[in-house]
Amino acid sequence: MKDKLTDANFPRTADNRVYHLGLRPGEIANKIITVGSPSRALTIAAHLDEEPKKFRIESERGFQTITGRYKGTPVSVISIGMGAPNMDFFVREARESITGDMVIIRLGSCGSLTHTSAPVGTVVVPKACVGITRNVDFDFGRPEDEQMNEERAYRISKPVSDDPQLHQIVVKSLENARPVGDQTVVAGHLVNASADSFYSSQGRLTSFPDHNTHLVEELLQQVDDLGTLEMETHHLYHLAKCWNHRPKISSSRSNNLNHTAPPLTTGPVRPVTLDSSPSRVNLGSPSASAPLVTVDSKIYVSAAQMVFAARTSVERDFITPERVQAIEEWGGKGVLEALIAYVIPAERLHPEKGSTQIVHQARSVVYLCSFWAIRFFVVCPRSRRHLLKALSVLRILRWKLAGFHSRSMNRCFPNKHFWMTE
């Protein structure tokens, strides 16, 4: 670690970047698609508008963020890797990097536990999720029948639901995005289970004494409408529920009775000036005056899961790479359509002033001014001296706008990669 951090409770760098995602306010949109695979993020980002140019950040922790617009609406695509811990990093740090409401849809993969209702290639939009955790208090070195009256090897949580309105929008958008003639099933009636490991808590048998031989059978018996199994979605649903049901604060502590308690963080670190030279363009501070979050904000979540494997079929068949590519293509577009269809009032969105989108729009204005200045020079060569000065200023502005984010981020994060695409 080479960056100076402040606040051990919620680490940030001097210019307000969160520890793992490497983001600061202004670089992430209120509407987000989260995926596990970086290549899937690129597939989805290819559907974003060509203008303004997309903004892309890759942190040294492996999180990749691409922010742009889809049909004019700001969206971010974030790849987070695998598992509930990475989902926790993403949701918490994204929440602390943006004001207003958030809409998050996970587009990922899963295994099917009911191959008749969710065969390989099905896209499942789980209406609810349960969590499966390995019980570390269980003695895995002893036979299970000796511990029947003591601890259970695995614990299954109560179900937690996604946002019902967003759920219906995701199902409809995926059905509309599915190519004509494509027989892929979009299932919105099933429940998902998220495990804390790929092997033991999902009932996969290895050389370890995991006591999970009958785990899948127990899951199907205990959880109604259970259809899929993976590692992330339950934690996404759980954190959204926690955020949306956090306790109210008393009126004596707030000017607004509808506000709820702010997060535990001690507050934003004020950004520092990386270059005090008078020639630096003032692009505005994306986080200097805005609070970390809007205290009465909401997080609306849902998910779309591609069934890669049939866990309970005799053949235990697996999806083909060609099928994955096809579903990611139209499924990514369908999820983007769902994001923009879910309406967030303008007053509950993060302000665009100082954001990466405004920077790109400013660059476009500078390019346009440069073009017309050159045209004017051709028509009126007698104004050469004044026009050359104007072009020099425009060239400096263009250079500073183009490199502002990448240079400032690389100074703060020399081991990370930040760039503007295209």
UniProtKB/TrEMBL annotation:
It comes from Lentinula edodes (Shiitake mushroom). It holds the Pfam family PNP_UDP_1. GO terms for molecular function: uridine phosphorylase activity. GO terms for cellular component: cytosol. Residues 250-259 have a biased composition (Polar residues). The lineage of its organism: Eukaryota, Fungi, Dikarya, Basidiomycota, Agaricomycotina. This is Purine and uridine phosphorylase. Residues 32-242 form the Nucleoside phosphorylase domain. One of its GO terms (biological process) is uridine catabolic process. Gene3D superfamilies: Nucleoside phosphorylase domain. Residues 250-282 are annotated as: Disordered. It comes from the Eukaryota.
